[in-house]
Every structure is written in C-alpha cells, then in structure tokens.
Amino acid sequence: MASRNKTLDYLLKLALPVIRPGLSRTKRLLKLIDNPEKGYPTLLIGGTNGKGSTLAMLLAVLRESGLKVGSYTSPHIERFNERIKVDGSEITGREITRIAGRLKGIVERELKGPLKDGVSFFEFTTVLALEYFRERGVDIALLEVGMGGRFDSTNVVLPEVSIITTIGLDHKEFLGTTLAQVAVEKAGIIKPKGVVVVGGLRPTALKVVRAKVRERSAKGFFIGKDFAVTRDESERIDFRGDEQLNGIKLALRGEHQLENAACALKALEVLRGRGFRIPTSAIRRGLKGVSWPGRIERFGKAPEVILDVAHNVEGAKALVGYLSDIKESRVVLVVGIMEDKDSRGILKEFASFADTIILTTPQVERSCSVERLREELDGLSYRGKVIIERRVSFAIRAAMAEAKDRALVCVSGSIYTVAEARRYLRSS
Description:
Radius of gyration: 22 Å
CATH architecture of the largest domain: 3-Layer(aba) Sandwich
Structural class: alpha/beta
Helix content: 40-55%
Number of domains: 2
Mean pLDDT: 90
CATH class of the largest domain: Alpha Beta
Number of helices: 15
CATH topology of the largest domain: UDP-N-acetylmuramoyl-L-alanine:D-glutamate ligase
Distance between the termini: 35 Å
Number of strands: 17
Oligomer: single chain
Low-confidence stretches: none
C-alpha cells in the first residue's frame, strides 16, 4: 500500500456489516502466516472496566523486570498506533503499512476460499499486532480483550494467565441484557486447564465464572478469597497472595484501581511461579511510575482539568467516588456520550456531584445529541447549571471560564470526548 493514510482507510473499511461471532477468520489468517502468537507467552486481560489499567500496571512491572513487552489495547485515544506497542513505543506508520500490505494480499487471495466473507477491522488488527510482536522478538505480550471475550479476536491465544477484572452491563446489543449473559461471554477467555485471576464480581456473574472454571478444569484465583489489596494510612497498598508485599506506592488514582492492582499483582505472582524473573524491586518501581492516558488524567492548574474515559454506569460510579473523595471546590463537568450507551444511567451518577454540567458532542456519528442529553438531565430533576456547547473544544473553553480558579473541571462520558479534549488541551 502506498501510504499510511491509505492503509488506515483500508483498515477502517473492513468493518463487517453485522457482528458475526466466531474465531475462525482470525485463526485462518494466523495460520496463513505460521501462527506468530505461538512464538511467545501472552497474558489475556478481559472485563467490563479496568482491563486497560490492569494491563498498564503489568506492562510497567514487566518492563522494569527487563523484559521486552508487547501490548495490544483498544480503542485508541488519539491515533491508531497507540493500540500496538513494544516497550511502550508505538508501532510506526511504516511498519503498519508494511505488515498490513502483506496481510491484505493474503486476505484478498483467500476471498475465494475460507475468508470469503472477509475479515473485520478488529480481526485484521489483532493479527497485525501478533505478527508485529513476533517480528520484534518480544518476551511476552499483553492483550486487552476488545469486547466480550468468548468470540473476541484476542481469544485465539493460549495465555499464561487470563484476567477478568470486572463484569457489568455494557455492549448489551452484542453481549446480552443480563449480568449472567454478559458473564458467559467474559468467562469465555478461561482456557481448559488454564489459570484465571478474577476481580470483584457481583454474585450473579461470580457464579457463572466459577462454573466455567470448574467446567474447564482451570485454576481460578478470586479476589477476597485467594488474594487481596488494602490501603494503609500513608496511602500505600499492601498485597496479600501466596506471599505478602507491603508499602507499595501506586501512581494510578482512584479507589477502583486497588482491585485492578490486586489482579495485576496476583497475575505477576503466577508468572513468578512459572519461572519469570520479576524482582520485588521491579514491582515497586513499576507501580510507582505507571501511567495510563485518559484514566483520571490531570492537566494544568487553576483550573485543574481531570480527564476520564468513563463510558458506562460502573465507570461513572468509580469516577464519582474518586471525585467525591477529593472534592474541595465546585465541579464543572463536560460530558459527551455515545448514543448506544446508558446515557441516563451515566448522567444520573454525574448529576450527583457536578455543580455545573456542560453537554457536548464529539465529532463521531454515534454521538448522543445534546438535546437528548438535556432531556435526560431534566428527567433526573438535576438542579445545577446546564450549558450546551456542541463542540468539545468550545465546551472546554466554557468549562474553564465557568470554573476560573475556584472549581475543578472534569471531562468524561466517552473515550471520544476525552480524545478531543486531550488534543485541545495539549495543543493549547
């Protein structure tokens, strides 16, 4: 392909007209390039919320341990390259173009055979990432599940450890409308005789996951039973697993990050038991220095701006919990939500703490209109000030003018809202 832009255009046009479950297309494409995913160990991280933060913690520690680490995450915040990294450095446009060109040729040849229905964007990019990791000779690859788990393209690997951070209602049109149905999809990443680390789940979801562990003769480690994390008076965390590790400083903010850290630490404990050299000093350095863009990310002072990609009710609750703990002044919230999300549920959480809400729409087709968001706020009997700004950049300006130096500005509701806000803040 002639250029990176043409490559990305091709990738974005790969979206299948409907979701067709199954891993056969991904497996076929991997087989045609000699199964790169078999050349290195992997970790597979799934869950409704927290999987990206958990991956970031694992990445930081494994890098501090001297390992060469590949990471595959989604979606990206500002550019596609963010999805595929080795040791924290993004894949280059040239590398994307080269590998995608090779895969495109294979797909087009196979259109008359097993791949007659084509492949999706996520199937293609998953294979691209796995091949890139082989080329770069990674020691281990961390893969974030895109959606669900059972039929997600990342589920083609046989990981050293699978992690399920949380299970909540999201992507209901694809994963199911009940917690039990969603849990079945998430539990699909548990491998026969494999190992799974499980975060805090509600009883309905926990029952499904435990049943899947038994069905697949897997080894399950459950938070609260097999491992736990607590915070001490100095805001450091103590981990209890097979061993005890005290006084860890965690850079990621928010009470919800404690369970994510617990899952990461237990997975690292499993890896150590399997022969990976992960010094305790690397764990301490990694968690102390870990960062994850768009997750309670702070910008500037007077007013301070906090960006968080909370895009479902559970994420909104976690953000509200954090803001409630630190709230020392008024909060001006900029919010833009996708139309396929539970916008009323998200707004209900946000309305409980925000003094002013500025409604906006990121430049994405799926954005919920400000009119609908306003109607839902009105239905919640929100008593604070409401401002409408149809562009995110205008909404940020309005929020700063409203806050001045006496209030905190928070931007949330969607990764797309945060992405536009982040670009604006960084450019200005």
